[in-house]
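Supplementary material to the annual report.
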Amino acid sequence: MALVLWGLFGVDMNVWLDAFLRLQLIVIVMTVTVMALIYVERKFVGRIQMRLGPMRTGPYGTLQSVADAVKLLTKEDLRPATADFWLFELAPYVTFVPVFMTLLALPFMEDWGVRDLQLGLFYIVAVSGVTVIGYIMAGWASDNKYALLGAVRSAAQLISYEIPLILAVLAVSMVAGSLNLNDIILQQDTIPNALLQPLPFLILLTATLAELSRRPFDIPIGESEVVGGPWVEYSGIRWSIIFALTEYAGLWGMAVLGSLVFLGGWEFPFGTSGFWGDFDFLYQMALVFAKSSFLILTMMLISATFPRLRIDQLMAFCWKILLPFGFLQIVINGIVLMYLDSEVTRDIALFATSGALLVAMAYVTYLATRQPSREARVAAMVAARSIQ
Amino acid sequence: MTVAEVVFYLLALLSVIAAVGVVTVPNVVHAALFLILSLLGVAGFYILLSSEFLALVQVLIYGGAVATIILFGLMLTGGRDLPAVGPGAQWPLALLVSGALVVLLLTAVLNTTWPRDAGEMTLISINTLGSVLFREWLLPFELASLVLLVALIGAVVISSQEERES
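Predicted assembly:
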């Protein structure tokens, strides 16, 4: 094991063997993380809802994920008689592979990712967009009305929320002047991007929740509306690929991406030249772990405490609020970066404009969501009656 | 054969088979999914040619586009369980047009003098691409976006008019 790690952390090795070992490492870490995240979410949501969560399997229920995995893997893998064979069987993989591919471009530590891509940030956004094809395949192939409804909903939601996500990522890459994740991290040695660009940070968090179909954006898979959406007919191992792997690996990947791009990753408070020499990767790992855990717990908190949106609210929020403000941020960034040369004034201007936009967006959202006054509601009812 | 050649022939096989699948399978949804397979194969060619940006744009745009095509396919083929399409009455005409297109493209490819040998590759960095697109060719770029914007607004206006009438 030590030998393998040395190879991964710099010693020369055959290219193919190196790539293979890196992939294996990612697969193992991903599986363990996914099982841990399932346990954490059940415990965390349980605490919020004033109950204990899993308690019986192992001490404090820590073996619950293992038990669930054994149950799911040994469960019968059902397929409806009228389902489209190939699309039904392939859909879970089409959903999962893009999520796994996003993990390959993430630099988890300094100089350590599977691949350091020059266009890493763009790659992650582009590849994760393919997931929607898997949703539609599953929904259509299941030959079930709820599944098809869920697929259509997820197509609308995922394609819509991809645009604010791209805008947020674009705004940050403008500030960094690069699409390479390592470059973006290295520039945050004193100020993380979340401070310079608070609005894109918020847009990214919101759009991530929507892209992962988590509450309050779980309209495509809402149990009380479409009974699980595209996945209603899936069971056993296929369901666990979709649910466990795709959902939680996606959550993990997006949280790590957020912590790298907006919270400074392994660079922010201490800088690259650490104090432990060869063992710098330990504190870098701890930093990325702490930051991504913070983001994951924030998203779980939002998921556990907000009610599900209606579909028209969801679309209006994306197209009428997130999108215009994302565009405004990009235009303002362009002007600021073009005309302000000094780094200090530039940073202050970026913070001030993005913060002002954030406040404006919050105010517009407040105006759009507040209850209309009693007089207005009465007037609307009177008008509706007079039409009849 | 080098590794790149093996990858090229595998990708070519994938794209061609998928492209034939698009026009031969009777089911609209299957055809649309074959289309994304073919387009992803083309993205693979771009990566082989070291044009990562083009490849990523291909994946990003066509992922969403094919999803939309499937939705249109489902909506326009009525309420049947299996939306199917077959050759219509105009197939001789379509054959003529596509045959003419093949001849045109083949003559164009064969008569062009390519600026470089096949072994060489021009590497265009993303920074060069950005400055060329947004400095030298800004006006055509803005014009293209304006045309798209007009089309978008037109679609919204037309559909909202129909809604109001019904």
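Helices of chain B lie at 3-24, 28-48, 52-76, 91-111, 126-136, 138-165.
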